Amino acid sequence: MTSIPSNSISFPHKLIAQLALGAAVLAAWEAAAVWWVDPFFIGRPSAIAVRLWETFVHGDMLTHTGITLFHSVVGLLLSLLIGVPIGVLFAAKRSVADTVEPYFLGFYSLPRVALAPLFILWFGIGSISKIAMAFSMVVFIVILNTHEGLRGVDRDLVDMLKSMRASRLYLLRKVLIPSIVPWIFASLRVGIGLALVGAVIGELLGANRGLGWYVEYSAGRVDIIGVFTGLVVLGVLGMALNEIVKAVENRVTEGRY
Questions:
Q1: CB 207 within 8 Å of CB 213
Q2: What angle do CA 157, 161, 164 make, to 5 degrees?
């Protein structure tokens, strides 16, 4: 049986520590809004909690959350489906990687925020432009991480297996895929936040639904509580998605690394 490292904590203690930290932050925020800072500028957790209850139970916040979640997750999954094969191609064909690299880095350096109006002109204000925005934020990370993961494969191990006449399928299943799994999950962990950012930017610039639209609508009405309500939902959504990815990663890598 594997012993737990001395610097790790058990799940109940970790959960208690996380809840205590969250409660302390909320208490400090509430105190600041009551005694030190005008709540018009920073909102109040108690007022935000009331707004959350009203908008989820009696309003359409659940619809806005589902739309933003859909845009982000689809963009994230498309980034994996397209980015991983491209990263594998770059690692397998060095000549292709060397030829494409300047253009790839040029596109990667473009601020994706500047592309949002272009996506809206191309695809309209529907879901496709938001998915394209989320995709553009994540796909380069997936390509780079996949490429880097394959570059780190032990070449001596690959050569030894080839000398033993191991098939390409065996190499792929036993060596190459295990080597890029941690990098793919790292891309997912980073990509969750970027996909949410991309979806929200698209919704801010042209939409009639979604959390980005809700934040923009609240800001237009000078409703600071509404703005913070949308931001809180986005933060909780990002934390929930990260926890899901972490659980899947632990399940997939259990006993392998």
A1: yes
A2: 145
Nearest by Cα to 64 from 237, 219, 213 = 213
What is the pTM assigned to this prediction? 0.82
Q: What is the separation of C-alpha 183 from the centre of its chain, rounded to a whole number of angstroms?
A: 14
The domains located in the chain, with CATH, are: 63-253 (1.10.3720.10)
How far is Cα 166 from Cα 109, in angstroms, rounded to an integer? 40
Which of 153, 144, 168 has its CA nearest to residue 79? 144
Q: Is the dihedral of CA 127, 204, 47, 49 positive or negative?
A: positive
Q: Mean pLDDT of residues grouped by 10 in the chain (257 residues)?
A: 52 78 84 83 86 87 91 93 87 81 82 82 86 91 85 68 66 73 87 90 85 90 90 91 87 66
- The Cα 188–Cα 134 span in angstroms is 13
Cα(82)–Cα(134) distance, rounded to whole angstroms? 13
Find all residues with CB under 8 Å of 131, minimum gap 6, and list them.
71, 74, 75, 78, 199
- Residue from 188, 192, 187, 237 nearest 210 by CA: 237
